[in-house]
Specification:
Layout (H helix, E strand, L loop, with lengths): L2 H6 L9 H22 L2 H4 L3 H19 L4 H24 L1 H8 L3 E5 L2 E2 L1 H7 L3 H10 L8 E6 L5 E5 L3
Antiparallel strand pairs: 1-2, 1-3, 3-4
Helix pairs in contact: 2-4, 2-5, 4-5, 5-6
């Protein structure tokens, strides 16, 4: 057993001591912060399907590395590979509408010129109650005050108010 393995432990989760688990937690916390900085705030802010998948996979990977459920260094390398794949994917999607559509989806217009589109709302699962909740949070009093309401790829409903 080399020095690093003595510090982080090896073998089954039951063979890892409390202090080795603590050292793993500190290392993984720092590593997670580094991965967050590399992936950028976008991965944890807007939450498209791609962002959510990355978040879940990295969380799952790092938890297994911390508890000893998977080999420590290979699991950390796998997490770094996920961030690299994510970073590559978002840059390809930025340059290709088709790839962007596949990875991130598309927006859906829910209201145009004060008229809701019930079929579009059903398709994306947005109820009248949710739509009006969004209007209230945007300071819109009436449906007639809405020029455009769109369910964005991030899952957020954006509202453009009528002028005047």
């Amino acid at each position: 057993m080399n020095g690093f393995e003595a510090v982080i432990g090896q073998g089954t989760p039951m063979q890892i001591t409390w202090w080795q688990m603590s050292v793993r937690a500190v290392i993984i916390f720092a590593y997670g912060v580094i991965l967050l900085r590399v992936a950028g705030q976008r991965a944890f802010g807007r939450q498209s399907a791609l962002d959510i998948v990355l978040t879940v996979l990295i969380g799952s990977n790092l938890s297994r590395a911390m508890t000893g459920g998977s080999p420590f260094l290979p699991t950390m390398a796998g997490s770094a590979a996920l961030v690299l794949l994510y970073y590559t994917s978002i840059h390809i999607a930025q340059r290709s509408d088709r790839v962007g559509y596949l990875l991130k989806g598309t927006h859906q217009v829910l209201v145009r010129d004060g008229h809701p589109d019930p079929a579009a709302m059903r398709q994306v699962g947005v109820s009248d109650v949710e739509l009006h909740e969004t209007f209230r949070s945007e300071g819109v009093d009436s449906l007639s005050d809405v020029k455009l309401a769109t369910l964005e790829r991030s899952g957020h409903v954006s509202v453009v108010k009528r002028k005047g």
